[in-house]
Amino acid sequence: MDNKYFSDIYDDFFRVDKKEIKVEENNNNQEEVNLLEDIDSLYLDIESKNLLKQILEYMDKYSNKEETNYINFNILVNGNNEETVNSISSILKKSVSNNHYTDGINVYELSLYDLNNKVDINEIYSKNAIIIIKDIESILMQDENNKKMFFYNLKNNLSKKKITIITGNESDINMFLSYDNDIRVKNFNFKLIEVMPTIQEIYNEVMNKVMVSDENKVLLLDYITDSYKEITDYVAYRENLIDYLSFNKNVPSVREVKTMDEIFKDLDSLVGLYDVKKVLRDLVNLISLKDKSDLKISNVNLHMLFLGNPGTGKTTVARHLSSILYNLGYIKENKLLEVSSKDLVAEYVGQTAIKTYSVIERALGGVLFIDEAYALSSKNNSYNDEAIATLIKAMEDNRDNLVVIFAGYTKEMQDFINSNSGIASRIGYTLNFKDYTEEELLEIFKGMVFKAGFKITNEALYKARNIIKEHLNDKNFGNARFVRNMYEKTVTEHATNTKDKRRKDVLITITDKDINIDNVL
Question: Are 347 and 324 in contact (CB under 8 A)?
């Protein structure tokens, strides 16, 4: 007779509900998957994540009698991030709750600063299953009797069915373990190493904690990219940024002073612009020669024309130029004031000169960048001449305290200069910004993606290239501005596509589904 017949009778007799068994198995499997995903989300190196997964797997096998040797998983965590340590203990607690690997499931945090308060180590171990020992550097503050008693009691408890986690930086851990060689050699054979989160991971954490408007999302990513350097306490960095965003509703600005080598490294990292870079290097060499020699070289006229289509790098180079001139001592402040004709020209008689001079005063000591300056030559506004006359006088009177850059389309700017000899005679340098090639625009896009900490698939790059190729010859094509808009739209689309995802590799990878230029043309 079929064995299934007797099996069914047995299950019915003992009222075994097969559906409940199946549900329980599915729940256990899902919990296991969740724990593995939790481990993958930890800021640990790959080897440490794999080690933690192996520990969980071994505890489960021991619980199922697939393993017979009980191992005391006493763990060193190299790092001082309490969030990571708490997450590790939470994962271990969930695991031992299911497999009963330890005596109990309670977690206890012991700061060694509390040793002076007559802490009872034996009592702590009797009531808890997972003990986290932190602030280990404070062991140096304890007298010899306290140290000896602590290590004696600790050693006696490390062989019990408990998990002990010691956390601290590597030098503190080595110092701590040096007090007892038995503990160092016999008891702590499992080590987890923390890593710093990436720019993209910090960005995702901030976005999960605070509402950020669409226009500020990419600005926030740019800010983190520029400011998240040599940060040792990323939790404080993240929380301070979240507080700032919550209160101010905007993104903070990054202020930093760079050396000349750093400035030119940044400038050289810009795609293309070879002729512009050469002119700037020649200019720096000329100013440097004048400053360090007794040669009778006349003062360098640094008022400039920047000629080129939109998105060819004019404003970006102007910012680099401001840093260069500041480092050379040619301007007093590292500042660039960006304006257009509407910021200079007023609507009523007698007010344009006042308005223009107000802008000039704000720019003194730095660089005044007038974008689309050709609009000042328009005959549609009778007050334009007044603005130009005020600018000409300021350029002459403040030649040692102000650099003026007129920027705009090549043809329109040539017409602007030809229409006013006073401006033309005061221009020292003219820089021509060429349109970017298809290859250069793709490099710019990739640079934006990689700088923010993303990865990108080949399919996504192929799609981006085809979009660039399709629009490259459009009448009002925006060059790098077009690419920037495509990048910002891509990041927003990626955020939407991954809002329900947890895996880090998915969160930081741009795919072809994310590449989007809707509403950016």
Answer: no
The tokens of 265 are what?
């490294």
Q: Which of 433, 458, 480 lies at the terminal end of a domain, its last residue?
A: 433
**Residues 234/197, Cβ–Cβ less than 8 Å:** yes
- Kindly report, residue by residue over 467-486, the tens digit of the pLDDT: 999 888 888 788 888 888 89
Contact call for residues 369 and 403 (beta carbons, < 8 A)? no
Q: E-strand spans in 253-316?
A: 304-308
51-78 pLDDT, tens digit each: 999 999 999 999 999 999 999 999 999 8
> How many other CB atoms are found less than 10 A from the CB of residue 148?
13
* Torsions phi, psi for 194 (to 5 deg): -75, 155
Kindly report the backbone phi and psi dihedral angles of residue 346, in degrees, each rounded to the nearest multiple of 5, phi listed first.
Answer: -95, 180
State the residue range of the domain holding 459. 438-510
Statement to judge: residues 78 and 180 lie in one domain: yes
* Total tally of structural domains belonging to the chain: 4
Q: Are 176 and 139 in contact (CB under 8 A)?
A: yes
| Helices within 74-143 (DSSP H only) | 82-99, 121-127
Do residues 402 and 304 both lie within one domain? yes
DSSP at 373: G
